[in-house]
From TrEMBL, chain B:
InterPro entries documented for this protein: YdbS-like_PH (IPR005182)
Transmembrane segments: 141-160, 172-193, 303-327, 333-353
Protein name as annotated: YdbS-like PH domain-containing protein
Pfam families, alphabetized: bPH_2 (PF03703)
Cited PANTHER family: UPF0699 TRANSMEMBRANE PROTEIN YDBS (PTHR34473), UPF0699 TRANSMEMBRANE PROTEIN YDBT (PTHR34473:SF2)
Keywords of this entry: Membrane, Transmembrane, Transmembrane helix
Feature: compositional bias, Pro residues: 9-33, 43-53, 89-107
Span of domain YdbS-like PH: 190-269, 369-419, 480-544
Stretches the record annotates as Disordered: 1-141
Superkingdom of the source species: Bacteria
């Protein structure tokens, strides 16, 4: 059992679905797609305006080419975003919180409640407009990233309260 | 322990007698040794406030009575100083009148009235009850010492260039004026700095224009260090540094105290920090100066040779040859030119030299309470005390050139540890063994993480298809789960190994990049609070999930069944960290 390499039978092979029998993954809100798209659209408009100004002053083929590139990249990123938001997920187990995200680089974080130092709940203006909030769990290690965006405010509050309650119960310091 | 019986336990590498023939025993020495000396240390003076201007606060600071130049603390200071009456309400001054504790700090025995309960400190001490101690000041010589450091920094900043432009005389005048200013500023800062113990908190006030009151809960103390830079050694002073988690820099450097006062305060802080509800009384009562048990001493000859075996030392002759040929070809032998070159060269050469000076006379021991005590340094002697349950991870390094000698380097990861210049690793003060043979490393690892035998740590290599990602490093990579620690190996030229005790895991991450996905591989990170993660690179995906699951389960089990305690000080797994057999 202690020898790595000898895997228990029935080990999951999917990169996104570990332990399918014990873990109930919960998705984040689909409104996060809209928020992300609006964010990206804003940036694209700003960049396009800059490039357009460049074209106005200097009629070089470089400017429209760059603009086309930006548009194509934005469309591609948007497609990825839609899928990436669907890939976000979190699960509360008895002793730890699981967060998975990422499509190109897939990440899964396992953070025991006992190691929690504090919980952040944030909501930017755009997120607030769509009734979303972000919960982030911090541990003493700077490397831990347990961030769950796109939560309903009620769900964010519930998660925050539950995390802090569990953290207090199981607090063991460092 | 989780799976302690899963495989036969290796023989303990060392019996309790810690002095094998090859390891010369350290002579127990209670205090930092005064040493011979060379150059002053360039520490940015931590104590003076933001800018050297005399604002209104400093005016009031000047009006307060100058205390007699004694090592005894100033007792009647709060209450008489208008600057202190406008303090934030977190630190109400002592009740007017004479302080209740007129005795100087002689050690923990002098304070029998400290709270005993686990949660008695800190909260009820507000309002200056009988438990609150009088505020104390730093040693009266500290402003001079701090000033001297700043002057050295200023001279270094002015550089040769300025000297050549303005001439020696003006240069001296500028330096002198700045020096006087800095000293005056430091004196004012010193008048406004004080510390005292309230319950289980150490409170420190400082700052001139922006006053700062910090309360440091001793539960969270990670390590305490006593530093004595050259000037402090000459004057018999010491700087006390407390390491707490959070904050990139050392909190609360108390610079300077007299050595006696500093070590007494350190003992008290550690006694308070390590106190659990059951052992409340003994912790303070039994602080008789028991001798610590020496563990290991690094031979200075080995240290020098090891630093000669670094790339910098090898490139030195090349650099010197380059400079000399350049001068010969150019034919310019001005003083400034040479001085600048020497300064530039010093930057490169200095690192090995500095390491030798820092790690000189490296001694390790266990104090009576089982804590690790580390002393080292030539120009600046340092003496750290680290409770063993604060060790987050151990890093073992085999640099390429050291492998000829069979030497290795051990590093302790302690949460919150960051040197004054936390960027460079040579300034970090968390080494466990600067250089030593394998047997010495094995002994020390066994001491710090009981039950972990450096010679018997099985690791499994990643699957063969990981060769596509690491054609050269493949053979050096590996990861393994032992009953006590998670082991990860990596590195071709400089071989490294990270040992993370399960009880110190903060979180576990599994990350899979696009190329890894093609190869069905994933990387597992075991994060600790020390900043160094144990990384099992490029494992098979199924194995990675299994590793992650095992790590989180073992981390939970190593901590014991989740106890319903709210105080972070009661580490329930202390038994896990007990010394193997001489406890």
């Amino acid at each position: 059992m202690t020898q790595p390499g000898t895997n228990p039978p029935g080990a999951p092979l999917s990169a996104l679905e570990p332990w399918p029998e014990t873990v109930q993954w919960r998705p984040v809100s689909r409104s996060l797609i809209t928020v992300e798209l609006i964010n990206r659209a804003t940036w694209v408009v700003v960049v396009l305006a800059g490039l357009g100004a460049g074209w106005w002053f200097n009629r070089h083929w470089f400017w429209p080419a760059a603009m086309a590139l930006v548009v194509v990249a934005a469309i591609w990123r948007s497609v990825v975003t839609v899928r990436a938001v669907r890939a976000w997920g979190y699960a509360e187990r008895d002793n730890d919180l699981l967060v998975r995200h990422g499509l190109v680089v897939r990440r899964l974080s396992i953070v025991p409640y006992a190691r929690m130092q504090f919980v952040d709940v944030t909501a930017g203006p755009l997120e607030r407009a769509f009734k979303l909030a972000t919960v982030q769990l911090h541990t003493a290690s700077a490397a831990s990233d347990a961030k769950i965006p796109g939560l309903d405010p009620a769900e964010a509050a519930r998660l925050r309260d539950r995390l802090t309650a569990l953290g207090e119960d199981r607090a063991e310091g460092l | 322990m989780t799976a302690a019986n899963a495989r036969p336990q290796p023989d303990p590498p060392t019996p309790p007698d810690p002095t094998p023939a090859s390891l010369p025993a350290a002579t127990p020495q209670p205090g930092p040794t005064p040493q011979l000396a060379a150059t002053p240390q360039h520490d940015p003076a931590p104590l003076p406030g933001p800018a050297p201007q005399a604002g209104p606060a400093s005016q009031t600071g000047l009006t307060q009575p100058v205390p007699p130049a004694q090592t005894a603390p100033i007792l009647d200071w709060p209450g008489t100083n208008p600057a202190y009456q406008s303090e934030p309400p977190t630190h109400p001054s002592q009740p007017a009148g004479p302080p209740t504790h007129p005795s100087p700090p002689d050690g923990p025995a002098a304070y029998p009235g400290l709270p005993d309960g686990p949660d008695a400190g800190g909260r009820d001490a507000e309002g200056g009850g009988p438990r609150a101690e009088p505020r104390r000041r730093l040693h009266p010589l500290s402003p001079l010492l701090n000033g001297a450091k700043s002057i050295a920094v200023i001279v270094a900043a002015l550089s040769w260039q300025t000297l050549s432009q303005v001439g020696l005389e003006r240069f001296a005048i500028v330096v002198a004026v700045l020096a006087v200013g800095v000293v005056i500023y430091s004196v004012i800062g010193w008048l406004n700095t004080g510390y005292h113990l309230v319950g289980r908190e150490l409170r420190i006030q400082d700052g001139l224009l922006w006053r700062r009151n910090r309360a440091i809960p001793l539960d969270r103390l990670q390590a305490v260090e006593l530093r004595r830079p050259l000037l402090a050694q000459l004057t018999g002073l010491a700087e006390l540094r407390l390491e707490v988690v959070g904050g990139g820099k050392t909190e609360a450097p108390l610079a300077y105290l007299s050595v006696k006062e500093a070590s007494a305060l350190r003992e008290r802080l550690l006694a308070l920090a390590g106190r659990t509800p059951g052992s409340g009384e003994q912790a303070t009562a039994e602080q008789a100066p028991m001798p610590e048990r020496p563990l290991f001493r690094v031979r200075n000859r080995d240290l020098v040779i090891s630093q000669l075996l670094t790339p910098q030392a090898f490139f030195l002759p090349v650099g010197v040859a380059f400079v000399v040929t350049q001068f010969v070809l150019e034919g310019s032998w001005t003083f400034i030119g040479i001085a600048s070159t020497v300064t530039a060269m010093a930057g490169v050469v200095l690192q090995p030299v500095r390491r030798v000076l820092q790690d000189w006379d490296f001694r390790l021991g266990r104090d009576p309470d089982g804590r690790l005590s580390v002393r080292f340094g030539l120009v600046e002697t340092r003496s750290q005390i680290v409770p063993l349950n604060r060790v987050q991870a151990i890093g073992v390094t085999w640099p390429l050139l050291w492998r000829l000698q069979g030497w290795l380097h051990l590093r302790l990861d302690i949460a919150g540890y960051a040197g004054p210049q936390s960027g460079g690793d040579d300034k970090r003060s968390d080494r466990l063994l600067p250089v030593g043979v394998f047997e010495a490393g094995r002994l020390l690892v066994w001491e710090v993480l009981p039950g972990v035998d450096l010679g018997a740590l099985p690791t499994a290599p990643p699957p063969r298809r990981a060769r596509w990602l690491h054609p050269f490093a493949f053979r050096a990579m590996g990861a393994g789960l032992t009953p006590e620690v998670f082991v990860a190996r990596t590195g071709v030229l400089t071989r490294e190994m990270t040992l993370v005790p399960y009880a110190r895991l903060q979180s576990v991450r599994v990350i899979q990049g696009p190329v890894q996905r093609l190869l069905n591989l994933a990387t597992v990170y075991a994060d600790t609070a020390g900043g160094q993660s144990g990384v099992a690179k490029d494992r098979d995906v199924a194995e990675a999930w299994w590793l992650a699951e095992q790590l989180s389960v073992r981390a939970r089990q190593a901590r014991g069944p989740a106890p319903l305690v709210t105080s972070a000080a009661n580490e329930p797994i202390d038994a896990h960290w007990q010394r193997p057999d001489y406890a």
